[in-house]
Amino acid sequence: MSTDDKAAHIRRLLDTEGDSVQANTRVFNQGRYAATEDLEDYEELKDRAREIKEEAISRLPELIEELTEAVEENGGHVYLASDAADANRYITEVADDAETLVKSKSMTSEEIDVNEALEATGVDVYETDLGEFVIQVAEESPSHIVGPAIHKSREEIAELFNREFETDEPLETAEELTMFAREYLGERVKEADVGMTGANFLVAESGTMLLVTSEGNARKCAVAPDTHIAVSGVEKVLPNFEDLQPFIELIARSGTGQDLTSYMSLLTPPVSTPTIEFGSDAPLSEADGDRDFHLVLIDNGRMAMREDPELRETLYCIRCGACANVCANFQHVGGHAFGGETYSGGIATGWEAGVHGQESAGEFNDLCTGCSRCVNQCPVKIDIPWINEVVRDRINRGEAPSEFDFLVEGLTPDAEPGGVSLQKRFFGNFGTVAKLGSKTAPVSNWLAELPPSRWAMEKVLQIDRRRDLPKFADETLQEWFLAREGLSPTEADREAVLYPDTYTNYISPERGKAAVRTLESLGVRVLLPDLPESGRAPLSQGMLSTAREQAHETYAGLAEHLDAGRDVIAIEPSDLAMFRGEYEKFLPEASFDRLSAASYEICEYVYGLVTNDPEKTDVLTEGPGRVAYHSHCQQRTMGLGEYTETLLEDLNYDVLTSTVECCGMAGSFGYKEQYYELSMDVGYELEDEFEAAGQRDRTVLASGTSCTDQLDVLLERKPHHPIELIAPDLG
Amino acid sequence: MSTVDTFENALDGLAVETTRLAPEAFEGVLEEVIEKPAVGTLSMESVSLEGTPVATDPTPNQLTESVTGVTGASLGIAEYGSVVLPSTSGGAEPVSLFCDLHVVVVSAEDIVPDMPTAVGTMATTLADGRESAIIATGPSATADMGALVRGAHGPKRVHVLVIEQ
């Protein structure tokens, strides 16, 4: 899809489906936050779930064998299908004599397009999950892996049903719509020759499956017809029955925010329930009792994903949808933009790349900004941003070089092949751009704002014209630092390296200066060495080689300081998130451990210093004052937002903290022409919070640079970094 | 709080009515709780459907025409207010599924405090015996039509009878 088409597609979804998706994902989110907060052993359950999945996937071939034996012992059949066509061939053969088939919700069945295959052989297929039923009637595709019709409002569903079913009385309320569907689908269930379900989990030792539903339709699909076909990806197998426990306690909480769904069906088919001849007056005890069960296990790329060290983690996914619900971009556009052929949300990049191929993942992969809000929400602790970055890197490598490559070639000394888009190379190499821009400031600032420059930037780099570009400072933080005298080693209690990130150094040196003043006033001797970029910028563009190189160089530049016992302090949370997170993938374990243990976010560090010695707060600028604070996404994931909030409160400020998931800017995302409107749509929520009546007098604070840029556009008040507020007075 | 109290409390949060009763009171209480016509299947030591208006070994027509279905639970899970409904050759699964009102009978001594205990018990009964069961928590529900509605495909209401010796 071209940049313009993508922008138009997103604009259309923002207008049509965005509001419903947003309302529904919010309900899921609030539910999940409440349901997991009540859970004492939430973290232990996630760890246990993760361990079980790791073990199951590592033993997968033998577990499939064990499961097959168990199901066959129980009297069922197992078919291991290599791909969608193979699975559909088997299923259509089993359903050969059937006139109708009723289905409960199964994303795996969507993945193989089984409905189309069955209908082609003359079988009428009815989706019985009410959300899937809406989608089937509307002839659309699911917009969410758990709530397939969350993009539709009640009014739209009523209009659809009234039109399609020509009901006597027009349906209006949720109750009326539900009762109509219950009645209509109840008849289909009774008539059906075959029932099809998915399987959320399969137990190898006993051949038991767990189906997680609330409506009761999966129970009906499994027992009302005599023939039951269960369709499941091979990755759903767990070794033992007791392994189900953490998943039973986590899946509904993570998905819809319920403690449990109404029905957790533990079926060991063929089930002992007598067959039911609807319309018959013969007692159930006289039924013939012959039940037929087929388990169709689908590979469709999964065994190859298992061998792929980066995609393997995707197989731990239990498809709860938490990563979609928590994602600000998903909330605003839903799965019809943030999704591929079948799957949607953050983890969909892994699934689509694995089962449908990179092209499908490439359609939406850029919508993951790497904000990491999903990381703590995943019940099996999958590093979803990393999967997105890896797949982005692979897509980049597969793309043909652009005719404009020569334009950025000199600007971008990266380790990437020619296929990376110019836009990605520009943002991925922003440090180099900033260095050049800063050398020639203010001329570079004037030039950049001239209409021809903006036209060229939009044309070549697809940087949206409506965005203000960052302005390079006349004097960088490092230049300022070198020209002054800091604390001498004898005056200091400790020493720390202040990491001069690109933005602080070249664009907003004020926050760096405030950090230096604060640290020195608290007895910390500050060093500001010339260090490479952290690798965050190229990583976010899927330029993994460049990111890896920068990680090595940054560590090399810091190693001696670590040896000297110095702490490393980051102002920009996304750089700290590299040191504490992604560097684990780039550096030797010992190097990563040393750097991550010694690195701090500036306010976290200051909080630590003043907590150890409360009298030190005297040198800082205290309140009273009213502030509105927006923490950075990655800062929140690391659990660091609280330090800034508490520090501000301890210094006598009245703090309003934003509750929205994200500011919408997410690094370079909001600058891109195709995502500008989505970025603003997400941002307006933050604006609403900070511009609410009675809050407009508050000083606006943000820890992240891109959050600051976005707030600067959204609000009339100029946002600052918290350290600028609390730094000692210059006087 | 006793395990039964916790169980009752959790059921209350799910909009499920609970009645605690002695085995001797079963027939009388059941008559009050059910709405006719009713079908059921129950194999418990302490109580039986014999002599009650509940039709046992129902036909499919009785099953789909009845308002109430009565079945037993092998376990109650106190912290969640869940009941474990074993699938039986007597048809407990459809009886608990096709009627608008599901009346569940559970012995107080079979109520366990939490999910790990319940799963541990089921590992030796259900999994080893290659049986099936439903962990049912509240009535059938959906939010797919724009708001929470109780009674999607399964029962709209659930009433739990706890038999205390």
Could you characterize what this model shows?
By secondary structure, chain A is α/β, with parallel strands linked by helices. Among the domains of chain A are: 3-302, Rossmann fold; 620-726, Rossmann fold (3-Layer(aba) Sandwich), CATH 3.40.50. Helices cover 49% and strands 11% of the residues of chain A. Chain A contains 36 helices and 17 strands. Chain A has a six-stranded parallel beta sheet, with helices on both faces. A four-stranded mixed beta sheet of chain A has the order 8-5-6-9, sandwiched between helices. The two termini of chain A are 56 Å apart. The mean pLDDT of chain A is 92. Chain B is an alpha/beta fold. Chain B has one domain (3-163): NagB/RpiA/CoA transferase-like (Rossmann fold, 3-Layer(aba) Sandwich), CATH 3.40.50. Chain B has helices at 3-13, 26-33, 60-65, 92-98, 115-127, and strands at residues 17-21, 38-41, 55-56, 68-72, 75-77, 82-86, 101-107, 111-112, 133-136, 141-142, 149-150, 157-163. Chain B has a six-stranded parallel beta sheet, with helices on both faces. A four-stranded mixed beta sheet of chain B has the order 8-5-6-9. In chain B, strands 10-11 form a two-stranded antiparallel sheet. Chains A and B meet through helix 4, helix 8, helix 9, helix 10 and helix 11 of A and helix 3, helix 4, helix 5, strand 9 and strand 10 of B. Strand 9 (263-267) of chain A pairs antiparallel with strand 9 (133-136) of chain B.
